Amino acid sequence: LVNCGHPAPLRIGHRLEALEPPEPSPPLGLGPRPRVRRAGLGLSQRLLLHTDGLTRARDADGAEFPLDHHVRNALAAPGLDHALPNLLDLLEEHAGDHLRDDLTLVLAQPVPVAEPAERAPGPAPVPLDQRDGPA
Q: How far is CA 63 from CA 87, 94, 98, in A?
């Protein structure tokens, strides 16, 4: 992970965990090259990348949107296609229909890698210079 001025990504598993950089980095181009941080992500975990439009969404009393167990539960929905809509529902309940900041959300989850299948026997590929037709 490289984080240059955005909120920390959130790792969602049994709990919600902000993956804070070891030291803050200024926005790209305003300082030295940022440090890369590695973070593991299990098959049952998800990673939410978001802009500050999420946390700066305010309710009628001016309270910012809390990143709490409700958010964790929303993002732990059985399918990715339900998780972000669940989060947007929570955000709308909190801030109403008027978000005052732009909002970007990216939710990712690793998938298991299948072992490569053995190639089925068949004809060998024909070299390009031996094929029929124009080259």
A: 17, 9, 14
In the block, which residue shows the tokens 């440090």?
35
Q: Which residue, among 39, 38, 43, has the nearest Cα to 17 in the 3D structure?
A: 39
Entry pTM? 0.76
Could you identify the residue written with the tokens 């910012």? 64
Hey, what amino acid is at 134?
Answer: P
What confidence tens digit (pLDDT) does each residue in 88-121 have? Answer: 999 999 998 777 788 999 999 998 888 776 666 6
